[in-house]
Amino acid sequence: MSLASAVAAAVVFVWLGMVLAISFLEAPLKFRAPNVTLDIGLGIGRLVFRALNTVEVVLAIVILLTSLASPPPAGAAAALAVVFAALALQIGAVRPRLNRRSDQVLAGLDAPRSRGHYVYIGLEAIKALARDLNEAAARAAGRGLRFGYHNHAFELPPVAGQPTGLEALADALDPAVLLEVDTYWAAVGGATPAGAKAGEGVPALLGRLGDRVRYLHVKDGPVTKDDPMTAVGGGLMPVAEILAACPSAEWHVVELDRCATDVLTAVRDSLTWLTGHGLATAAPDNPGPVR
After folding, report:
1. What residues of the chain score a pLDDT lower than 50?
2. Which of 133, 162, 199, 283 is 20 to 30 A (C-alpha) from 173?
């Protein structure tokens, strides 16, 4: 590793630590301190996040200079550009909006509720996670391995102008980071549009993510957060349409987090349903699907 690359890697981890410590620890905890009023908390928050964004700009410039000295791969450069764009959006659009609202609150006005802070924190999370995952993917590639990201449900609400947080994150990731989409949790988390049938929005999500998706977790059930899952084919998920929407998938993995029946029986029933619908092939000497 060159000196420039080492400096860039160190800056990434410093940046990540600052974002995690300030955005996800200091910001919510300060209001729990004794005698910290709303006015004091808002004043502290404005000072801290102005300082954080200033330091982030400095760190971004350092990474840019090291990239000029030791150009990263095209994918990593594109991912860095997305991170820089997220930072610019925070500074140029989101933080001024939050400042205007805090001015109204501090002046004693009845300011309307704002979701701007959710956008800001969402951008912070995307920046932090993308930097971490991109670094992990680079280290894995150096050892002949591939690195991927598996979603749950929390990444699916809209973030930063994207239909889902998962898509916003994918845009910030190096193309070397593979996507392992859990189709069931994508449906639970919000990939299904309002008024649509359960799981109906998952094929469209997979189409938008494109060939970044290399693994699919295939599940079925009532498509709720807390109820147990069923064997594939026994629930509400449009499994055939989902699999057809992702030709780039190398593996279809039947995974049942918790099941209404015996899990091994459910796995066998899932295989029977998948093979019966031409969606999997059972190996002669192995009851599992070859794909």
Report:
1. 290
2. 199
